[in-house]
Design a protein that fits this description.
alpha+beta, about 60% helix, seven-stranded antiparallel sheet
């Protein structure tokens, strides 16, 4: 079993002066050859990796706080802290640090870094200079005391000595006694001096002094001293705010007196830091680092104490979900949980896991489902914040809960549907809440955070659930606002005949843009489910109606949705786009945009450039066949000429392929020709399906086949002996008499040889119908150039 005395949490102070959690491990002090000195090592308890390796430098100032913390700075802006599980472990490491530096372990700080000039100056001082003599605590000596406190702030060593003197003589309480006297006498000069003294003492940055100054019997006098800033004409009334305006609300009575005191203290100290003290200058930023740490660890203690009180949390949940609870009371309960979750962010990871699991076991998610559906905006906003903490902590936990709901309730009150409806109905003109909720939905449906190794079916099960129960709710506003293509322009111009919600209303346009952003994410990450949904709902056609919106950002969202679909290079999607002629609204938007060189213009051109560069043959053929006349005048980019060039290249390649695989009738034996002819019926009956195996031929291939058959009929008509057989070969397949008629040209094929050189004999891919007409082979000619442009790919 590991030694819990050496169990620590490693913290670093970030740029925002907040402590970041770096992990939990066990600390040791040992000689490190590479660093050439005794060092502190922290190895992670999870995998044994090295969390911290820090040499105990003789000149580094180490500080012990609250019996279980050791704090120090390794660089100018790099502060570290070790939080020990047990006081005994902290004392052991502290003694080791003091031993290396030759200091007394009874001190709470070893030393502060000082520059060479200060060292030289201190060496020149007499031996008695290490003592700081405090003036008597009298009204007449307040100015002298204020000057002393102000003068030591520039010297780390003198700050430390002054702090020791203040703690050893009980000087703080005497000063606060003088404050009451000065206030009774309305001695403004003395009060101004006391402001300078108390502010300077706070800047000494000593945890022991904070413990003393922020105790219940001192903190309000400290706040009182800070009211009398000499720069102000009239003093601030901070004490009045803290005692009368700020109300401490107990949603459930807290019986633990220590917990109540800790909550009061934390709120007041936070008020001092955020409201009373001026924003520190660049030179004072580190003066209050210990104050930040004091608040941070107080919050950790509060959350831990509340979490351990099971009766308290159980009662809170019972009242939150009770239908008889008054609206005001429920609002207070939700706000309590919001603050509770915010405080939990200070916990170490393993403790935070325990915290959220406790809330989950008590029923936080069913409770949120109730309160998020309420009419009270404040309650809904607070519930959204709580929900965001839960999703950030464990998306899988939320997904597991919502997948169990359909067995117990109907679709309308599913938690995710409640979230979607709240997003859709956000009353904020800027949709701030909707943006937050969209981000949470995106996290929940992101396959990247679905735990495949643990639960291999989570992705499949949840996405099936989402598309079955929730997707129709998400897309409802989009489908409602694009209800009819022919009426879409009137709708977009403000008509309410089709739907009372107008997508050219800015707020509605923003909402549709959010929905499209989420659907675009689905296209990228939910390959199968979203594809099925798009096809079933003809969703892309509905989305492209929004290309007519007067809001360019909404048109761009619709275009981005189509761009993601085409970017997948999925022929299933491509055939859907071609069949629905879905490039038309995009090209209309490009033409309507005219000569304006803007983001919409660039985005549309990039879409066609992608198709050209990636050589998406089916789309290129469709675009050139149907829209090239409208696009050929656009010459400021070479995109459309390039598409035409790709089209011509592919057409030429297909023509060469057809010629290459034509067969000489003389090289066929009877069995081989009969096999081809027997297969011809199936070939002609399902020509389009066969052609799709290569994805190189589109619908235009069937047109090509019809043209070929027409030419064959004409040729056979001029050849009297074989005209009947030619017609039979070109006719549509008819059961069961067709096979004998088709196979009958075999003897004639052998007798009608021509002097044409034999072509390569090989098994064809998709051009078997060419073999059916013996008269074409007799003509010794390549396909007419007039027929080549009919190829669609």
């Amino acid at each position: 079993m590991s030694d819990t005395r050496r169990r620590v949490k490693v913290y670093t102070l970030n740029e925002d002066r907040q402590w970041d959690d770096r992990g939990t491990g066990h600390v040791s002090s040992t000689f490190v050859e590479r660093l050439k000195g005794i060092s502190l090592l922290v190895r992670a308890e999870s995998d044994g990796s090295l969390l911290l390796e820090s040499k105990i430098s003789p000149n580094t100032a180490y500080q012990k706080q609250q019996d279980t913390l050791i704090v120090w700075s390794e660089a100018e802006n790099y502060d570290l802290a070790l939080s020990f599980q047990e006081k005994a472990g902290c004392d052991e490491i502290w003694e080791k640090i003091c031993q290396v530096q030759g200091k007394d372990p009874a001190l709470e700080i070893t030393q502060d870094p000082i520059d060479e000039s200060e060292e030289e100056r201190l060496e020149e001082l007499p031996e008695t200079s290490h003592l700081v003599e405090l003036p008597p605590c009298e009204l007449s000596r307040l100015e002298e005391m204020a000057d002393l406190v102000t003068s030591v702030l520039s010297s780390p060593i003198r700050r430390e000595k002054l702090a020791l003197a203040l703690m050893s003589e009980g000087y703080i309480k005497k000063l606060l006694g003088l404050f009451q006297v000065c206030e009774d006498l309305d001695n403004r000069e003395g009060l101004h001096h006391l402001y300078e003294i108390v502010r300077g003492v706070l800047f000494l940055n000593k945890a022991a002094l904070f413990e003393m100054m922020f105790s219940d019997d001192c903190i309000m006098d400290v706040v009182g001293c800070l009211e009398y800033d000499p720069a102000l004409v009239q003093p601030k009334r901070h004490r009045e705010f803290l005692t009368k305006t700020a109300k401490f609300k107990e949603v459930i009575p807290i019986t633990d007196s220590e917990l109540r005191q800790k909550i009061h203290q934390t709120y007041r100290v936070q008020y001092i830091q955020d409201i009373i003290l001026p924003t520190p200058s660049v030179f004072e930023e580190n003066f209050l680092s210990t104050l930040t740490s004091f608040i941070f660890f107080n919050k950790v203690e509060i959350v831990s104490m509340l979490q351990e009180d099971e009766k308290f949390l159980t009662e809170v949940f019972a009242q939150l979900t009770d239908e008889a609870t008054e609206a005001i009371k429920r609002r207070e309960l939700v706000n309590f949980f919001k603050e509770f979750c915010a405080f939990s962010q200070t916990l170490q990871p393993q403790n935070r896991d325990s915290f959220f699991k406790t809330l989950a076991n008590l029923g936080i998610l069913p409770a949120l489902e109730i309160v998020m559906g309420m009419d009270d905006l404040q309650v809904r906003a607070a519930a959204t914040d709580i929900f965001s903490y839960l999703v950030e902590f464990s998306p899988s936990m939320v997904r597991e809960f919502v997948m169990q709901e359909p067995q117990q309730t109907d679709d309308d009150v599913l938690l995710i549907n409640v979230v979607i409806k709240q997003m859709i109905c956000d009353s904020d003109p800027e949709l701030g809440g909707a943006v937050q909720l969209m981000g949470l939905l995106r996290t929940l449906i992101d396959p990247e955070n679905m735990l495949a190794p643990i639960n291999k079916t989570e992705k499949t099960e949840f996405l099936s659930f989402f598309y079955k129960y929730c997707m129709h709710v998400l897309t409802a506003p989009l489908l409602a606002n694009t209800a009819q293509d022919k009426g879409s322009k009137d709708l977009l111009e403000g008509s309410t005949k089709i739907n009372p919600v107008c997508p050219d209303n800015f707020q509605t346009a923003q909402l549709l843009a959010l929905i499209l952003e989420l659907l675009t994410f689905c296209v990228e990450h939910h390959t199968y489910h979203i594809k099925t949904y798009i096809m079933n709902k003809d969703l892309l056609r509905r989305v492209l109606v929004l290309m007519n919106s007067k809001h360019t950002f909404l048109a761009l969202c619709a275009l981005r949705f189509m761009r993601r679909i085409i970017g997948l290079k999925d022929e299933y999607y491509n055939r859907y786009i071609i069949k629905g002629n879905l490039f038309e609204p995009v090209i209309n938007a490009l033409l309507d945009n005219g000569t304006r060189y803007n983001l919409l213009n660039s985005a549309i051109i990039e879409l066609f450039e992608f198709i050209k560069v990636e050589d998406v043959k089916s789309l290129i053929a469709h675009i050139v066949d149907n829209f090239y006349k409208a696009l050929e005048s656009i010459e400021y980019v070479q995109t459309f000429k390039g598409l035409k060039g790709r089209y011509e290249q592919e057409k030429e390649r297909q023509s060469q392929r057809l010629n290459r695989y034509r067969r000489d009738a003389r090289s066929m034996d009877d069995d081989e020709e009969m096999w081809f002819n027997d297969d011809e019926d199936e070939e002609e009956g399902d020509a389009v399906e066969k052609s799709r195996t290569e994805d190189d031929f589109s619908d235009s291939y069937s047109k090509y086949m019809e043209a070929k058959k027409g030419a064959a009929n004409g040729s056979n008509a001029s050849n009297g002996a074989n005209s009947t057989n030619g017609k039979a070969a070109a006719a549509p397949p008819a059961p069961p008499a067709a096979p004998p008629a088709v196979s009958s040209p075999a003897p004639s094929a052998k007798t009608s040889a021509t002097p044409a050189p034999p072509l390569i004999k090989t098994v064809g891919l998709v051009d078997y119908p060419d073999d059916e007409d013996e008269d074409e082979e007799d003509e010794e000619e390549e396909p007419s150039p007039r027929k080549r442009p009919r190829l669609g790919s």
